[in-house]
Here is the input.
Amino acid sequence: QVHLVESGGGSVKPGGSLRLSCAASGFNFSDYYMIWVRQAPGKGLEWLSYISGSGPYTNSADSVKGRFTTSRDNTRNSLFLQMNSLRVEDTAVYYCARVRDGYSNSADYWGQGTLVTVSS
Amino acid sequence: NFMLTQPHSVSESPGKTVTISCTRSSGSIATNYVQWYQQRPGSAPINVIYDDNQRPSGVPDRFSGSIDKSSNSASLSISGLKTEDEADYYCQSYDTSTWVFGGGTKLLVL
Here is the structure.
């Protein structure tokens, strides 16, 4: 069955960097777009980025553009989110999710999330 | 880009039907599909409706989705409410390479 597991979260000071990983299993990883979504404490869901199956197409939300980079390694069935210049407001649970195939632009499977805390 | 606006909270009794709205601020609601996600406290979101009105396998047929062009909104209806339906619900759509989530609605089953 489809399984997504995020890792790499933790505590970091403002201005610091973190790299999140999302390990995928149970499906042909390279066939699917993937997304990152975050949720600040007590707040709603915020889309961060997507990346195409083969990796050349990406887009990010304006809130993280220029600071966060999404990439993938299909040989390792892994998705990554490189986060630089972190701010206090980046504190959130970060989820990776698989984009359903077809044209729906919906996320059909989600990981359990990894917590990132940015604090001095 | 556009915004999706949802009521902050709704409440209803077990066994009843509740409807949660999601209004698109600009552009037609029919231009891009709308999805709905359920999120229980401490858990990841689960997709309960995609492509406006399609149910993923495993989602009970008590859950249904629709769009209304006249009000430029989408709706999620849950019939035969159960206490386990108490959760946050988010609508989501897409436009010009950007995903947009609504602010979420807390459903209380009292």
In short: Strands of chain B lie at 4-5, 9-12, 18-24, 35-39, 46-49, 63-68, 73-78, 87-95, 98-101, 105-109. The first strand of chain B starts at residue 4 and ends at 5. Chain B is about 0% helix and 45% strand.
